[in-house]
Here is the input.
Amino acid sequence: MTADKPTPTRTKLSLTDELAVERTRLANERTLLAYIRSSLYFSIAGLTLNSFFQLELGWLLELAFWLVAIGILISGIIRYRRVAKKLNISAFAQKRWHLLMEEEV
Here is the structure.
């Protein structure tokens, strides 16, 4: 005996679903820009602290801030690409879903 797989009900995606995906894409881009902004703040803070206070080991403090800035930037880019990849897979699945619905009609 073979068990029949349940077939999902095929309903046309509404405009609100499509807009939700687009809002998620825009939120992902805003998040990437926030990571870039934070990275710039840390790099500027490192330069400012070193030049303003003129510490004996100021270069070490500046280096630490720059490493944090680079880490933030890299983690932001990685996160952006992961979410964008998931959204592209989701968009592909939605297009495929539309094609399946058109074949039935």
In short: The chain has one domain: 15-104. The helical segments are 15-53, 58-104.
